[in-house]
């Protein structure tokens, strides 16, 4: 039974604040253990990877090799049925087309003084992609991380994926190949992150590490940050569905459960102006749970973190959605455009009744790596820009330097930085 | 005496690696102390700010008020001499013009299937700007942080600046006013960061915190990350100067010292193909140090971290510059364009003999908040995009959903996510 809120209730603001402040993740303190693992990999390289993989994944990399061979990848691809392979290809192509539009343009111009200014964008030279093992080993996530890197022009894309008990998901290898990943290593955990950051005899270090992982992986990414760049630390998934009375409660329930089945810490929230729809959706959720293979997970998520917020008017949902700042926002209303135009904090918005969030997970083309835990207030989903960096340029001749020198020297003096002033003045005999 | 390297020497690669690996910052372990301060501010709000400011800044905020009044700001502005004020205005205007070109464009389009896709950019709703007190209280940095936020459209820009012994730099207040800062509070340290992140009775919380600070401020920013966004953690400043034989050694020496005077941990590196220039620059550095007010700082920086790298051909400097990934790169050569085109890892590039890096510090128009400590390999200088976030959109009708449903359902099945498949199938009776 999800939480029920009503904006008309006297205690709404307090209860809504509680909803926003809900801690959905227990942050395990694994920093010490991770520190030791990172140190071992830095000091012993491959030997540490072999030892730690024996310990944690029960796999002998001495025998299998740290790197996954071209033959293994080809075998994995061959084992994927044609329908699934075609679906991965379609997803890859749509993600690529969409992300190609995100490529930034260089800028160079001359201002009224004759000063040349500009920005040059270049790709990060090498990127490491972490892919979890076991049940969270999603081929779709491989595409969502690797394709934008490829579009950005990253020259070397390295993937790491653990193989617990020697098992690898062939779909993940097939997706990596489809996305253009250059090297794949069968390692995981903090040791894989350390290997990507510092390198070993077998693995050359990368400049940036992306991709989701467990508490150990997240802690390792935080620890190596600075040595390399990292992406955001992803939390459990969320959906906010804004729905008017004219929805089929079963459709909305299915969307809420699609989010809830990910993780017991996932969160599904419905905002509606219809008490009837709210009641029907709750019933439909229960009905659908009865036949859901991952019902246990979904039920716990819905029970602990699910919420239905009743509003007097759907226009109220804009301010609420901006405060919730959901990773995914569905606008299941007759005309979603005004709401879409008004909302500012959301990772991705899905407009209209025929755009379930799940399309965005797989084949919409937009990225499914999105800001969680209200971070859409200040950050964006993964994209091409995450794999590029901007270098600014300035170019002056003697005339331009003469024009700007007085102000620069005045400010240098005001800041007490005499060598700064001299660096300008010496060129003009000032 | 700086380090001397020669790419022709047998031990070059080893010594160059040592140069890259040099630790220039002692990372103070202040995490525990900062944790206590953040907790105090969260629990006691203004009262904690008042108590901690008494303790650390020797200032009574109960009497002065936490917020700096409009009258104080006006008085500060009036106290600034006309020349300096005009220089700040020029800097502000040039920074604004340049950054206006960085405003991203929304994108919305319909693909061949009729699916609507796109990206919408919106400003972060509120931003906090940390400004250090004392000698590192730079009005130029206020402009460099606040103006891009303003250009991005941030609705509320809040500045915090400590006032040790009650002292405030009037230039910093004047710059804040010029940049359009909305609120200024006389608080600093970890307590100011906590107040911005969590809010107090007087200060409403912000969504993102930017700006440089000491070890306590940096640790506090790391701790509140997630609750709010943060910018990069800035390290000590760096310049790499690539110079051919035809340079005036005094100009190059002045540029190296302009960087070195910032901080004993700053780093100035010269790459040249001329042993004569190298020798003359070293002499010029010593000569100029004799008359430099901040000579002690600059001498320590040059002695401990300065370096001169002799190359056989300046074309070698591209690969070295990419590995150094300097915050600032000066190309003091006859034709800087081919080198500029080839280099990929640098925060900002200054082209030609008449573009000293100092122009970029103040009035060039580009941003002086740039990636340090080799992070230009994976990150960019501060810009308008740091104050905005992108929301993706997807919009399908029944026909588009029908076209994409099979692939989405196939992938959902492959990933074992049945509720995902249902969320699509239920809309089409599949």
Automatic annotation (TrEMBL), chains A, B:
Write out the pathway annotation from the protein's UniProt entry.
Amino-acid biosynthesis; L-histidine biosynthesis; L-histidine from 5-phospho-alpha-D-ribose 1-diphosphate: step 9/9
Protein name, UniProt field: Histidinol dehydrogenase
Binding of substrate: at which residues? Answer: 237, 259, 262, 328, 361, 415, 420
- Function comment: Catalyzes the sequential NAD-dependent oxidations of L-histidinol to L-histidinaldehyde and then to L-histidine.
Q: Which example biological process does GO assign this protein?
A: L-histidine biosynthetic process
Gene Ontology molecular function: any one: histidinol dehydrogenase activity
Q: What's in the keyword line of the UniProt record?
A: Amino-acid biosynthesis, Histidine biosynthesis, Metal-binding, NAD, Oxidoreductase, Zinc
Q: Which cofactor does it need?
A: Zn(2+)
EC number(s) per UniProt?
1.1.1.23
- HAMAP family from the entry? HisD (MF_01024)
The Gene Ontology CC terms held by the record are:
cytosol
Question: Which of the seven top EC classes does this enzyme belong to?
Answer: oxidoreductase
- Give me the residues that bind Zn(2+), please: 259, 262, 361, 420
Q: How is the cofactor bound?
A: Binds 1 zinc ion per subunit.
| Catalytic residues, chain numbering | 327-328
Reactions mediated catalytically:
L-histidinol + 2 NAD(+) + H2O = L-histidine + 2 NADH + 3 H(+)
Query: Which InterPro entries does the protein's record reference?
Result: Ald_DH/histidinol_DH (IPR016161), Histidinol_DH_CS (IPR001692), Histidinol_DH_monofunct (IPR022695), Hstdl_DH (IPR012131)
Keyword Zinc in record: yes
For this protein, the record's Pfam families field holds: Histidinol_dh
- Residues annotated as binding NAD(+): 130, 191, 214
* Family the UniProt entry places it in: Belongs to the histidinol dehydrogenase family.
